Amino acid sequence: MMGHFFRRSRKWRLISLCRWDRASAPIYEASSRGGGIPLLKTLLTNHCVNECRYCGVRVGSLGGERWRPDKLALVAYTLWKDGLIKGVFLSSAMEGDPDDVVERELTVVEELRSMGYTGYVHLRLMPGVSRSLIREAIKLVDRVGVNLEAPRSDIFSEICPDKGDFEQDVFRRLEWMVEEARRGGLRCGVDTQFVVGAVEDDDLSYLKIVEDLYRDLGLRRVYFSGFEPVPGTPLEKRPPCRPSREYRLYQASFLIRDYGFTSNQLSEILDDDGMLPNVDPKLAYARRHRELFPVNLNECSYMELLKVPHVGPSTAKKIIAYRSRRGFKTFRDVEQAVGRRVARLIARYVEPSRRGLEKFG
What we know:
This protein has 14 helices and 11 strands. The protein is an alpha/beta fold. Helix 6 (203-217) runs parallel beside helix 7 (243-258) and helix 12 packs across helix 13 (340-346). It is globular, with a radius of gyration of 23 Å.
């Protein structure tokens, strides 16, 4: 069994043995646009044959504990029936052949579904997995993914020296998942994750591959996990990734996914080392391109609105809707369209009309 499992006062708890699982207990609050979603998050096993240089769950590091598939399915079903979780996120260390590992993951999900479980399932598949098992997974779960770990093959080889070929065993599998997801109608799509700062890298490399993943491949989500040194690993003396760097990468990636920015546009705000400044990247871009502002709210496009600091898709839609009904004549119209607080934040970047802006001062 994976970790130490017990139940007190109708509440299940498991202490994870995997630091890179990013949770001290399996009931993990996953973020979403609708708020936090409690998930049972665990590894199928912590026994690994790989030697990833950043990871505490590497060959010979732990005792090789593992869940029995039927036991894990029963635990997940009980938690779900008790209302303690809404979903399951299942991953695994690479215990051996990737297909063998994924087949055991699928056994858990099949057992869980057979019990009547209808909740969310997010499955992390293994590098090198066969396409037929990807196809089977998509029939059973809501989201699948495989971790790219690095933005480029040279960085991947440095931090994951025996995890396979970056292009064939990881990126190609991600492409297969997207192709099969489109055929099978996977509800929540495909995702991946990077480990940031484990070795010398730069933000530009992440922005370029994120653009490919969102625009060309159609991934639903890209995650960034800032490196944290783990005692006993080859990188134990390397400094941790700054939390601010992880945060700015998320912000920049959302600008690419949701706001129409390109990696080339964002590269304009990077320093000489290819790193993002520790400031909202949209604000940094606006400061660099003052010629783009203010935008005329009666004439600008939706995509131009999304370039305005403090304007997201929801606010942009409110502006378009108000414009179609009444149009903007004074700044008071802006306040009525988006609320006083947001109106004050965007005041320097927009104009209801030349006359209205001058009246506002």
